[in-house]
Each structure stands twice: as structure tokens, then as C-alpha cells.
Amino acid sequence: MLKEKTMPTTEMATLTLRGQTYEFPVTVGTENEIAIDISALRKKTGVVTLDYGYMNTGACESAITFLDGEKGVLRYRGYPVEELAKNSRFVEVAYLLINGHMPNEIERVQWSSLLNSHSMMHEDMRHLFYQYPEHSHPMAILSAMVVSLSTYYPELSQHRPDEPEEAITIAATRLMSKVRTIAAFSYKKSIGEPFVYPRHDLKYCANFLNMMFSSPVCPYEIRPEVVQALNVLLILHADHEQNCSTAAVRLVGSARVNLYAAVGAGICALWGPLHGGANQMVVDMLEEIQRSGQGVRSYVDLVKASKGKMLLYGFGHRVYKNYDPRAKIIKKCCHDMLKALQIHDPLLDIALELEQLAMSDDYFTERNLYPNVDFYSGIIYRAIGIPKEMFTVMFALGRLPGWIAQWKEAREDPRFKLQRPRQIYVGPNMRLMNDADKTREI
Ligand code: SDX
């Protein structure tokens, strides 16, 4: 249960509007973030606020993730992400996000056996994969399959606000475990190979890699460097406070839909090229630079001359006005893994040159455009052998525990409300229909 996490203050903010003065309470978070609570604004003043993109609007109080965009700080439940990436496995970080504490030995064993017991999909779901046209984007398949889980596993009702904890835990575990299987199955289907089932003797990341890359004629060699790199990548993607897809999960979840439907909405939001879809766009961009032979400098000049019409994918962030701390870790992980696998990827050279040019160009630095989490992640996925159409699926795999944790926290929040923003109407004033408007025949 999300307890009142803000510090009780008597501080008030004053608003003066059309000669009237109003007061609104100021709330302060545990990291001294300050907000003006305008819950009573319309009741007191009759007006609403307008904030395109919610650039200045907090949707909730949350105890899950803390970001400091100016200082490039990211912490999950208080732990710096750098610590977690170095010392934990993804499933432990998933447990932390969903339950609020790191698992002890008993909880770790229970969580691991729960994930194993829910790793298979209902056998009937296999046939759904064959109904998609060839070259279907795996994000379309993933979102449809995740929502379809609610038809095979209807334990989560839509209407009971007091859903038993046990049902939520089972649904969360089903999602955590089955989404990995769905992702691997959609890849196998796309290359016309038979599905490889999850194995109980393999841990989360190794199991995923095995389902993706082993086949009846050729077992996959599970390299510890690759498992380690995948754990780090999934940890770095695990949550990021109220980003677009998490906001979608909370908004759709506020109508009290079940967890699968809310996560399906998050997957669709993440697919967008401005959000999680950027990791695929980055590699498209690097490949285009390589193919054109025009060089990185001329591509950067094209972006600048386009005045925002062309984007440097993998650069810029709504919150980080500095280097995304995750990009730093992923860049190092890139170098370490390519070295361990003795791979030279020319796209990494292009990416490094692109970063170096952009970081020394006022156009980008003045706009606080630094590499974000999506800039280097695709290079690692390529080295592992994951096709670029699957990159955003990998992002979703990582973000899943964050979505689950945020959906759960929203439901447990004593101030839980159906999310329904207001607007300012700018259309035609009242007018009556003239004869030309009326239907002549029924
Ligand atoms: C993720 O929110 C999260 O936490 C998201 C995420 C997560 O973990 O959930 O971190 C994951 O989505 C990372 C972002 C991935 N997206 C991309 O890499 C796509 C490229 N980036 C841009 O689309 C953009 O930077 C956004 C959408 C990420 C943020 O944009 P904002 O905050 O809405 O800022 P803006 O669009 O108003 O841009 C401000 C200026 C504009 O120029 P001017 O009008 O001031 O002249 O910067 C320019 C923009 O044109 N600009 C870019 C640019 N991003 C912004 N110019 C070139 N290339 C870019 N990438």
C-alpha cells in the first residue's frame, strides 16, 4: 500500500486570477521535489490548467523510481541503477520493483520457481502465431498476445478493486515469464523455425537466449558474457517513472482493466519511434549513414538543417538534460561484449563518431541532446544475434516489471482515480443546422 510518501507541509502556493487570490497546498517528496497540489483548482477557481505533453504536470506520487534529469540520477526503490546493474540479476530487480525490497534467499527461490512454473504458454496460443502475416512486426504480435493472456488466464477480474494479492502475484508472474516465451516464439515463427520451449534448468536470461537461438539440429552455446550483458540491459530498462508507456499503463489501468490489458496498452505506446521504438530507428539511421557513404558529418548537418523534421534517434530526453546514466553503462557494456565475442561492428564506429560530433556541436548541446538509453543498446542486441525488429520487444521485456509495479501501486494508492484529463475547447460556437446540413432522405 502506497503510504502518504510526501512530507506534510503547511506551505501554500498562491494564485491570483482576475483579481481573486487562491491558495493551494505545496507537497514535497522524499528527494525534495516540490509540487503544487491543484486537485481543488477547478472547484475553487472554475478553471483548469493546460500543459501539452504534461511537461510540467505530475500524475501521481510514486515510491518506485527516482530520476534526477539535471544530475543524471536513476534509482529503483532507492538503489542506484549502477549498483543493481553490477550486483544483481534482472529477476531480482524485477522482484524489487514489484515488491519494494530485494528478495531474501527464500523469496528468491520462491520467485524463481514461480517464474519457472508459469513459463509455458497455453498450448492453444501457439496456433495464434500462425494467423499473422509474414513480416508482422513482433510488437504487434506481443501486444495482441499479452492481452490474449487474459482470455486463457481469466483469474484477474476487471471489477474487483480489492483483487486478492495472490491473484495479482500469479498474474504478474505469468506476465514476467510468458512474455519472454512469447517474444522468443514470435522470433522463431518469423524465421520459420520450430518453437523451442522454456527449460526449468536455465535461469531467466539464459532460458530466453536458448528459446531464441537453439534449434533441434543445433544446440545454442550459452555464453556467460552474453547472459551478463542481457541481464544488465534488462535491468537498465526495468522502470523509468512516468514515461509515455508507463503513463499509458496507469491511464488504461485507472479504468480498472486487468493487468494484461493495461500492459498491452503500454506495449503499444512503447512501440512508438519517439519512445521505445527509437532503438530500432537508431540502427536504421546508422545503417543509412553506412549505406549512403556520405559520412557522419553530412548526416548531422542534414539533421540540423531539417529544423526538427529529421531526428538524431537515440538522442534527447524529456527528463535527462544531461547524459542518460543508462547510456553510459550500455556504451561500456557494448565495448566489453564486442571484445569478449571478438566482434567488430562498423555501426559502433559510426555511433561513436556520431556521439563525438553531436557532443561538440552547439546545436545539440544547447538543446541538451545527449545519447539516451536507445543509442547503444541496438549494437549489443545485434552482437547477440537479435534482429532489429525485435529490439523494442527487448525493451518491453525489460520494462515489464516496471509496468507491473506501477499498475499495482496505482491500484493501491488511496487517491486512486479514473484518469480523465480536461481540455480547452476551441471549436465553433453554438450554431443551428441549415437546410443544406439536413439529411434529405432517411
Ligand atoms: C525513451 O520518458 C522516458 O523516460 C523515456 C525512456 C524510458 O526509459 O521510458 O527514457 C525511453 O523513450 C528515450 C527517448 C527515445 N527517443 C528517441 O531517441 C527519439 C529522438 N528523441 C526525440 O524524439 C526527443 O528528444 C524526445 C521525444 C525524446 C524528447 O523530446 P521533448 O522533450 O519533447 O523535446 P522537444 O521535442 O520539444 O525538443 C526540443 C528541441 C527541439 O528543437 P527546437 O524546436 O527547440 O529548435 O530539441 C530538438 C527539437 O527539434 N530535438 C531534436 C531531437 N530531440 C529533440 N533534434 C534532433 N534530434 C533529436 N533526437
Outline type: globular
Task: Let me know the CATH homologous superfamily of the largest domain.
Answer: Citrate Synthase, domain 1
N→C terminal distance = 56 Å
Q: How many β strands by DSSP?
A: 6
Q: How many strands, which pairing sense, and closed or not: the largest β-sheet?
A: 3 strands, antiparallel
Strand order of the largest sheet: 1-2-3
H/E series, N to C? EEEHEEEHHHHHHHHHHHHHHHHH
How would you describe this structure in keywords?
3 domains; Citrate Synthase, domain 1; three-stranded antiparallel β-sheet; 442 residues; Rubrerythrin, domain 2; mainly alpha; binds s-citryldethia Coenzyme A; Cytochrome p450-Terp, domain 2; 49% helix
Indicate the topology.
Elements: E1 12-17, E2 20-28, E3 34-36, H1 41-45, E4 65-68, E5 73-76, E6 79-80, H2 81-87, H3 90-99, H4 105-117, H5 125-129, H6 138-152, H7 165-190, H8 204-213, H9 224-236, H10 244-253, H11 259-270, H12 278-292, H13 296-305, H14 325-340, H15 346-359, H16 362-365, H17 374-384, H18 391-412
Antiparallel strand pairs: 1-2, 2-3, 4-5, 5-6
The structure holds s-citryldethia Coenzyme A.
Summarize the structure.
This protein is mostly helical.
Describe the protein in words:
With 442 residues, the protein is mainly alpha-helical. It has three domains: 12-58, Rubrerythrin, domain 2; 77-271 and 392-412, Citrate Synthase, domain 1, CATH 1.10.580; 278-384, Orthogonal Bundle (Cytochrome p450-Terp, domain 2), CATH 1.10.230. 49% of the residues lie in helices and 6% in strands. A three-stranded antiparallel β-sheet has the order 1-2-3. A three-stranded antiparallel β-sheet has the order 4-5-6. Helix 9 runs antiparallel to helix 14 and helix 10 packs across helix 18. The longest helix is centred in the middle third of the chain and has 26 residues, at 165-190. It is globular.
